[in-house]
Amino acid sequence: MFASIDDLQHGLEAAGYYADRRLATAVFLALKLQRPLLLEGEPGVGKTELAKALAVAMQRELLRLQCYDGLELREALYEWNYTAQLLHMRAAEGKESTEEIEREVYEPRYLIRRPLLQALQAPEPGAVLLIDEVDRADEPFEAFLLEYLGEYQVSIPEIGTIKAQFTPVTILTSNRTRELNDAVKRRCLYHWLDYPERERELAIVRAQVPQASAALSQQVADFVGRLRSQPFANAFQRAPGIAESVEWARALVALDTLAVDPEVVADTAGILFKQREDVAALTKELATELLKPEEVA
Fold it and tell me: Would you call 42 helix, strand, or coil by DSSP?
């Protein structure tokens, strides 16, 4: 769909996502080579939002599989509609042979399709499948994913192998709460997604919060950028993500803020941080230091 990396960047920007050149290159190659793309990075850097924007840019359906500890096959791939199967068996009892009944209850009409199977059977042009926070699932689930990631197919014992007619664009995200299996990584292209540079973050804030003045958007991008940099980053357990930057800008607009000052920073710290200790660490004194103009070397 995209003739070049520049074309892809423009498509994502039209969908409200500002990807740098390295990220756009990784996505472009994943599309060209029809390979899954594994995105790792800190929470809030835009991994999930990339899949959403890509679905919009490509005009494809977005299917999302949210991973968690204990995720089961029936929640990721399929399960049988046992109630409908039971009703069919009762209705057919005495009218058909046992073999015929058994064959009929495992027909596709009794199959409840979950995200992985939906992605494989999506009509043209195919779907965008987001396997979100795959690091939260357990290792057996990773092993199950290998067939899908390597061949875009799955095996269902009662039916057989189901292969994608239209290759789904597959994005996996990981916050790196644990190391993923090498077999999963080998089947994917890989990209580490870091916090954006200030100019990119400024573009995102301006696009997402058009009500904010140019000066206020610049202050938000500069302030959050300094929060994430040394030596200030050492004062916090987790730096604010892009989503927090955007939400903070919206809050400042709602408060009719013309310019950020230490008092408004302290009052709205709970938007930038979600940890009690981090909110407490963002004092008026630290905010004053962060708001000082950076010295030009």
Answer: coil
**Which residues neighbour 228 within 8 Å (Cβ) at sequence distance 6 or greater?**
195, 239, 240
Secondary structure of 108-175 in the HEC alphabet?
Answer: HHHEEECHHHHHHCCCCCCEEEEEECHHHCCHHHHHHHHHHHHHCEEEECCCEEEECCCCCEEEEEEC
Tracing tokens 């008092």 back to the chain, one arrives at 263
CA distance 86 to 84: 5
Local confidence pLDDT in tens for the 297 residues of the chain: 799 999 999 999 999 899 999 999 999 999 999 999 999 998 889 999 999 999 999 999 999 999 999 898 888 998 887 778 688 777 777 677 766 767 677 777 878 899 999 999 999 999 999 999 999 999 889 999 999 999 999 988 888 899 999 999 999 999 988 999 999 999 999 999 999 888 999 999 998 999 999 999 999 999 999 999 988 888 899 889 999 999 999 999 999 999 999 999 999 999 999 999 999 999 999 999 999 877 644
In the three-class reduction of DSSP (H, G, I as helix; E, B as strand; rest coil), residue 45 is classed as coil
Contact 175, 135 (CB under 8 A): yes
Alpha-carbon span 167 to 145, nearest angstrom: 15
Alpha helices in the chain (DSSP H): 5-14, 21-33, 47-58, 73-76, 82-92, 98-105, 115-120, 139-151, 182-186, 198-208, 214-228, 242-254, 262-267, 269-272, 276-281, 284-291
Q: With contact defined as beta carbons under 8 Å apart, do 60 and 118 qualify?
A: no
Closest CA relative to residue 214, chosen from 258, 161, 164: 258
CA distance 272 to 264: 12
CA-closest candidate to residue 291, choices 243, 232, 240, 242: 232
d(CA 17, CA 174): 19
Task: Put residue 256 in one of left, alpha, beta given phi > 0 → left and psi -120 to 50 → alpha.
Answer: left
